[in-house]
Amino acid sequence: MRPILTLTTDFGEGSRYVAAMKGVALSIAPDLTVVDISHCVPPQDIAAGARVLVEATPWFPAGTLHLAVIDPGVGSDRRIVYAEIGDQRYVCPDNGLLGLLAVEQKPRKLHTVSEAEYWLPDVSRTFHGRDIMAPVAARLCSGLAPERLGPAIDGLTPLAAARGIRVGQRIEGEVVELDSFGNLITNITAEMLTGVPRDLSVTVECDDHQTLGIYETYADQPPMTLIALVGSGGALELAIVEDSAAIMLGVKAGTPVVVRW
Fold it and tell me: What is the distance between the terminal CA atoms of the chain, rounded to a whole angstrom?
């Protein structure tokens, strides 16, 4: 099978910066299969990038190399790292991007990307995705041993993101993302909801809006109904059946969400 390289960035769809990274990678490893996971991560939103990686990358064939560039600290002393987590491989800034993946599974191998011989000859202070990470990722896909990238390290920078809190018969969280359907994704995980009833004794509140019960599918309620359910990413979400909750409710990321029973 041809080696697979995936790309996740906050550059935006159609960005010339994405094209430049692909050009570098394919110049070094022409047999690569390059897959775009997403380039619509909100600008500099490390937590959103971490959610993309934890939900998408584990589904790829073992040994896939995932290159992620959400890098507000580019040009600073933040590290660039190579990581093996589960059966997947990653190259990205060490700024919390791998924080959710590392919580689910302890990394098997971690190295800094510090040996400049595997970078492009001229490195911009503002585009390490093109000049450092893309050439390193391509060389890894071509068989470069990760041990040659730089010293082994013991751990990763954790993700600095708000987490839901469960106290008694109440869970407090917030909306962390609006997905492409307009559903409101929260930081209340399925694990936090363990033992919580799924019947109408449960109230889910978001801003001035309220719904009763936690359901299994969107079709469990009629069209235009506000519904709460655990989505495919393993988090509680709020949706308007057959419409956009983001538009209908006018809710943004950061809006508090409370579950009580």
Answer: 51
Phi-psi region of 242 (alpha: psi -120 to 50; beta: other; left: phi over 0): left
pLDDT in tens, 165-213: 999 999 999 999 999 999 999 999 999 999 999 999 999 999 999 999 9
Q: For domain 4-148, is the CATH number 3.40.50.10790?
A: yes
Q: CA 63, CA 198: separation in Å to the nearest integer?
A: 39
4-148 matches 165-260 in fold: no
CA distance linking residue 192 with residue 186, whole number of Å: 12
Structurally, at CATH architecture level, domain 165-260 sits in: Beta Barrel (2.40)
Neighbours of 168 (CB within 10 A): 7
- pTM, two decimals, is 0.86
The full set of domain ranges for the chain reads 4-148, 165-260
Confidence band, pLDDT 50/70/90 cuts, at residue 162: confident
The CA distance from 205 to 210, in Å, is: 4
